[in-house]
Amino acid sequence: MLVTSPAFKDNAARALESPGLQKALDRAKGGFLSKRGAAVAGLPEFERLRDIGRDIKNHTLQHLDFYLEEYEAKVQGAGGHVHWCHTADDARRAVLEICRRAGARTVTKGKSMISEELGINDHLEAHGIQPVETDLGEYILQLRNEPPSHIIGPAFHLNREDWEESFRASHTDLPKDRVFHERRDILTEARSRLRDKFLVADVGITGANFLVAETGSSVIVTNEGNGDLTQTLPRVHIVLASIEKVVPTLEDCTSLLRLLARSATGQDFSVYTTFSTGVRREGDLDGPEEYHVILVDAGRSNMVGTDFQDMLRCIRCSACMNHCPVYGVVGGHAYGWVYPGPMGSVLTPTLVGVDKAGHLPNASTFCGRCESVCPVKIPLPKLMRHWREREFERHLTPSAIRANLGLWAWFAMRPSLYRMATRAATGVLGLLGRGKGSFRTLPLAGGWTAGRDLPVPQGGTFMAQYKRRQRGARP
Asked: How confident is the model at residue 354 (pLDDT cuts 50, 70, 90)?
């Protein structure tokens, strides 16, 4: 497991200096926002639906053991198998054993963030089994040997010319006059290469957006047909899912599906919403002979009953990162692990440790947009504050920051002295910055000005302005 989150600042600096990445971010991020806005405006009950989604997930988490056992019983009743995996190593072993029993040489895969977390591709390759990503974005990233940079748009960071370059480097038989001017050109090339892979695959691996305890079904939501081909054509279907994906009933699942597509892509529903339940039955035209569900804990159960339980409500829609001003300028790879953006800033420290990912909860403006658009109302800024508190308590923050916070706290506990000091600082900075909008450099503030400008104070301190406005408001 490669975690580069400790290098977030360096990663972000490189991202800001990358013209190709900045071009891709500028082009793509606006579409997510406008489409989501239109979809939400077209559903008057959307806010009420957010409350329902939050309550469904809270109820499920309060009774998680019960619903997981119900789900297992229904899967077994439909001829399937459930594998309980406490750690990532357990999950990797389970997948490999199933593939070996099936005599698999080629495995097709649908898009799955939990498979990225587990490093399934590398594990299979190390044991002589070829995994083939079938999602269009994941396929190009596999050719480039890159991780996803976005949950639902894994190749969010690439431009059309990057796709063409990668195809020509990997598909060496491409005619020189082949063009890739349109999206359909890219789709056609990928489909032509993947068609044979679907037909020869011995095992298909998908993720799951939801697991339905009532029926034992796994649900995938995609805008491409690759997910259906991955789980119906091979003899063996493996579902990879973390334990919080379970929901009680089909009705609950439908409510969450109404939130998911609108929040993710601005669609009422994705093009494909597919329910899979067990093995092929008599009379079925297609489906697997074996159906396996790998239920992965990997630290999730440790979150239940803690300050971070709310994070387990996440339905992986990516609305938080689509609206995040930090993600919008540095992209997903800067976050250094599987989960980027605000949700990653909470989840990554939980799963890999705040000692490795402490920069992430600090990489936030706390503007609150992530919480305001979250379809299940996860209080992401509050959870990031909890991680900042724990980082401080464990003395993981730099000594200079701790010393400066201690100095600020000393003044803050002495209100008269604090007001005097802030008036003096505001006045001095105002004089030094007269005629300027901001400081590009400033003594004793190099940590700030190294990455951003410092605005020149205007209008006095907050307390002084507040008092003036209060006096003006009196009758």
From this structure: very high
Domain span at residue 56 reads 43-301
- Residue 367, pLDDT above cutoff 80: yes
Number of separate domains in the chain: 2
Which amino acid does the sequence have at 197? K
Domain presence at residue 381:
no
Helix (H) or strand (E) holding 402: helix 399-412
Q: What is the pLDDT of residue 400?
A: 80
Of the residues 282, 301, 320, the one at which a domain ends: 301
Encoding tokens for residue 397?
A: 């923050």
DSSP per-residue letters across 126-188: HTT-EEEE-SHHHHHHHHHT---SSSS-TTTT--HHHHHHHHHHH-TT--TT----SHHHHHH
| pLDDT tens readout for residues 137-191 | 999 999 999 999 999 999 999 998 998 889 989 988 888 778 787 778 888 888 8
Q: Which residues touch 224 (CB under 8 Å, ≥6 apart)?
A: 135, 136, 271, 272
The sheet that has 290-296: what strands, in order across it? 81-85, 290-296, 236-242, 203-206, 106-109, 130-133
- Of 234, 268, 301, the residue that ends a domain is 301
DSSP structure string for 366-379: ---HHHHH-TT---
374 within a domain of the structure (yes/no): no
> Using CA atoms, how far apart are residues 245 and 215, in angstroms rounded to an integer?
14
Q: Which pTM does this prediction carry?
A: 0.90
Q: How far apart are the first and last CA of the chain?
A: 65
DSSP code at position 282 = T
User: Hey, which residues does 274 pair with through a beta bridge?
Assistant: 220
Instruction: Report yes or no on 453 lying in a domain.
Output: yes
